[in-house]
Design a protein that fits this description.
Layout: H1 5-19, H2 23-34, H3 38-53, H4 55-63, H5 75-90, H6 96-109, H7 114-127, H8 139-146, H9 150-160, H10 162-171, E1 178-182, H11 189-195, E2 199-202, E3 209-213, H12 222-225, E4 229-231, H13 234-243, E5 250-253, H14 260-268, E6 274-279, H15 282-295, E7 300-304, E8 317-323, H16 343-346, H17 348-360, E9 364-374, H18 383-392, E10 396-398, E11 417-420, E12 430-437
Length: 438
């Protein structure tokens, strides 16, 4: 089979569709498999992520060129059509003829109805200038415009209202920026700003945090290999700053992999004290250890542990971070496939999230601070869990979120809870709640 940007993008899309794998892992693995040059790798990634992100909008455009619903089309044929529609409708630099010809060639190689593919795409080109997206603020109209399922839009409308929901949808349509966290145990902000050669912008909200421009894969830079920084969204860095660890404290990061929060907590403690960094899987623990080694963070102790276990090597931690598994609705722009999650399946997470928080709370010393966090925008995973914990654990009290970052409160919630919506600092969405053991 011919190997090029479009064939690689298609193979990755079919893997995501069949195995429901994480998009970033799937595309990285597929690109490594075929070793495309830099230009084709970039195009494959653009088509791959764009086709996932715009799927609902793409299917709307397709519906205008078909005599029957898209679900009646063979899966491989449909994905070939989607990649071509994405190129025709969203990529101005791709010639329409190239998008059509390559789609037809892919259909031929997969022994599919290439004549059908050709006819549909030719019709789209003919009518594309007449096509308009639905206007208004109905759930269906918003779904088609922003390519987010109606049920998820309904969840946000019911929870946060129209103004915030539209802001969420707009921000998730933008490209996610790259943020790094300087390793303050190795380099100062002054040294970074003086010696680093690529473009950057310093965060106005927290220290040692920079947005990076035009550096490509920053993990390939010598400064990364030398342990001068790690890649971490500003939201995760903010969360660590809210927990505000102090020097020589003992911390537990319950669900730590791949380790970004562990590293930032360690650095905020200037390499003192100890951060016990746990994960359920051996391979993910290796990632944490490798990252801590690269950064020179000797106070990180990474090991395997089930967050639902009743046992822990530490039972008197100063602070515990429970960044629990969640639906991920706050990081949709980084993992676009998350938007298509079945909301009924998300319900299975609630009990696990609560149990992780409850069991972890046992290992905190009196007067210690317990943090519960997610990277989702769903009150049932956020405020509901936090409120239930406080109600059912009388040995804990609410601990107010410190005002050290000036994050705007856009919804009414208790002082110990904070939902952070995307946009105000080009951040992902996240939630944090703090509790103090009496």
């Amino acid at each position: 089979m011919t190997v090029n940007a479009r064939s690689v993008a298609l193979e990755a899309l079919l893997q995501v569709s069949e195995n429901e794998g994480y998009s970033n892992i799937v595309i990285d693995k597929t690109l490594r498999k075929y070793e495309l040059d830099k230009r084709d790798s970039a195009l494959a990634s653009i088509i791959f992520y764009g086709t996932i992100e715009k799927r609902i909008t793409i299917d709307y455009y397709l519906s205008k060129c078909l005599d029957h619903p898209t679900y009646k089309i063979n899966e491989k044929t449909l994905e070939i059509l989607r990649t071509a529609v994405y190129q025709i409708m969203f990529l101005e630099k791709i010639p329409e003829s190239a998008a059509v010809n390559e789609a037809v060639n892919l259909a031929k190689e997969y022994k599919l109805q290439f004549g059908f593919v050709n006819a549909v795409l030719r019709k789209l080109i003919k009518i594309k200038d007449e096509l308009t997206l639905a206007e208004g603020n109905s759930e269906k109209a918003l779904s088609i415009r922003y390519s987010v399922p109606e049920k998820l839009i309904s969840l946000w409308l019911d929870s946060y209202g129209m103004e915030i929901t539209e802001k969420i949808l707009e921000d998730f349509s933008k490209i996610a920026p790259t943020y790094i966290r300087l390793n303050n145990t190795k380099i100062t902000e002054e040294e970074f700003e003086k010696n680093f050669e690529f473009s950057f912008k310093k965060s106005q909200y927290i220290g040692n945090c920079y947005k990076i421009f035009g550096a490509g894969d920053v993990t390939s830079l010598k400064e990364f290999e030398d342990g001068l920084f790690h890649v971490q969204d500003i939201s995760s860095q903010m969360l660590c700053n809210i927990l505000a660890p102090k020097e020589n404290e003992v911390l537990i990061d319950v669900c730590a992999a791949p380790g970004g929060k562990t590293f930032t907590l360690s650095e905020l403690m200037n390499g003192t004290g100890t951060v016990y960094s746990y994960d359920l899987y051996k391979g993910r623990v290796k990632l944490i250890r490798a990252g801590a080694y690269r950064l020179g963070l000797k106070n990180v102790m990474a090991s395997m542990r089930d967050a639902l276990s009743d046992k822990c090597e530490i039972d008197n931690a100063d602070k515990i971070l429970c960044d629990v598994p969640c639906s991920g609705f706050g990081v949709i722009r980084r993992k676009p496939e998350i938007r298509y999650k079945d909301l009924s399946e998300v319900e299975a997470l609630y009990e696990t999230q609560y149990e992780i928080l409850s069991k972890s709370s046992k290992f905190l010393k009196k007067g210690g601070i317990l943090a519960y966090s997610t990277c989702t925008l769903n009150p049932k995973e956020n405020g509901n869990i936090a409120s239930k914990f406080l109600k059912e654990h009388s040995e804990f009290e609410a601990f107010s979120i410190p005002d050290n970052i000036k994050i705007p409160r856009l919804i009414k919630e208790p002082e110990n809870q904070l939902t952070v919506f995307p946009g105000f600092a080009e951040n992902d969405g996240f939630f944090i709640a703090l509790f103090r053991k009496k």
